[in-house]
Design a protein that fits this description.
Elements (H helix, E strand, L loop, with lengths): L7 H4 L16 E10 L2 E11 L4 E5 L6 H8 L7 E6 L2 E2 L5 H7 L1 E3 L12 H10 L5 H4 L5 H21 L14 H13 L5 E5 L7 H16 L3 E5 L3 H7 L2 E6 L2 E6 L1 H6 L1 H8 L7
Parallel strand pairs: 3-8, 3-9, 6-7, 7-8
Antiparallel strand pairs: 1-2, 1-4, 4-5, 9-10
Helix pairs in contact: 4-6, 4-7, 6-7
The protein binds adenosine-5'-diphosphate and magnesium ion.
The site of adenosine-5'-diphosphate has 11 residues, from strand 2 and helix 2.
Length: 280
């Protein structure tokens, strides 16, 4: 099944009904993962699973190691030990482009779009990773390349439609307000047709209605059959859309479970609020 065309019967079911909670193998398994920066362990003996087709949130105070975890999964940083197993393959220490080819893509905590390019071109560049000819040959304007270019454009337009940016396809990417730049980053990450998409604080800096729009988008992405790992500080958003939440503090897992349990977990409340209470 292609992640873009989920079987209707699967789409209409919750992850537990598809067996994702039972017989299905996790899409990602992290085992005893470590990453040191000098004497600091930014990720410390971290073990967790991600079931396919869910929204898996990762939360924790600033400096907890969330972005480092994404950098390790996507091959931006080498590990200092442990395993990252994606669909059965240990991808720890693989090069980023190889990880991307396997079906993992991400957005960045600070928006990193291509400047001087239109909204549509930003997504088309991402799409080129998936195609035969690639960027180099496309300069030659061969018929096969032109056909491929047309397909890339159509695919990119579909993705822009999904994130609600199709009307702005021909505007300069950098002219968009921050909220839409963040949506565009998600669109570009989708362009590689990933099975697993990692979103690093995608709602930071968004107002309430933009956050609502982003929440619906993340659920749509999940309904397409993709798996989402969401790093996010907006606790209301996390509690609303996450199926399961991993909580990190100083690089260690302090809790892991569904929103209702995490909300009341004393260690989680302590790490966030420094006192008794309940989250969002
Ligand atoms: N490239 C780096 N070099 C040195 N220290 C780093 C680097 N990246 C992250 N760190 C440190 O690792 C810890 C975790 O950082 P980070 O993963 O960015 O946390 P989070 O995303 O949860 O806020 C922090 O103490 C941070 O200073
Ligand atoms: Mg971070």
């Amino acid at each position: 099944m292609s992640p873009q065309e989920p079987d209707q019967a699967v789409r209409d079911k919750t992850p537990s009904e598809t067996g994702a909670g039972g017989g299905t193998q996790p899409i990602l398994k992290v085992r005893d993962l470590n990453r040191a920066f000098g004497g600091l362990l930014a990720i410390s003996d971290l073990t967790f699973d991600v079931r396919p087709g869910v929204i898996r949130a990762v939360i924790g105070p600033n400096g907890a190691g969330k972005t480092t975890l994404f950098n390790l999964i996507t091959g931006v940083l080498p590990t200092s030990g442990g395993q990252i197993i994606f669909e059965g393959a240990d991808i720890g220490n693989w090069k980023s482009h190889k990880v991307a080819k396997l079906g993992i893509s991400r957005t960045f905590q600070t928006v990193e779009l291509y400047h001087g390019m239109s909204v549509l071109e930003n997504v088309m560049v991402g799409r080129h990773v998936r195609t035969r000819c690639g960027m180099l040959l496309s300069g030659l304007r061969l018929p096969v390349v032109r056909r491929e270019e047309r397909q890339i454009r159509e695919d990119a337009e579909k993705i822009l439609d999904l994130v609600g940016l199709l009307p702005k396809a021909h505007e300069e990417a950098e002219s968009l307000p921050l909220g839409e730049q963040k949506l565009l980053e998600v669109a570009r990450a989708l362009a590689t047709d990933p099975k697993l998409i990692l979103l690093d604080e995608p709602a930071a800096g968004l107002n309430e209605s933009e956050t609502d729009r982003a929440a619906r988008l993340f659920q749509d992405i999940c309904r397409q059959g993709r798996t989402v790992i969401l790093v996010e500080h907006d606790m209301k958003l996390v509690m609303e859309i996450a199926d399961e939440i991993l909580v990190l503090n100083f690089g260690e897992k302090i809790a892991d479970g569904p929103p209702d349990l995490i909300r009341k977990d004393p260690q989680v409340v302590e790490a966030y609020l420094g006192s008794e209470g309940e989250l969002a």
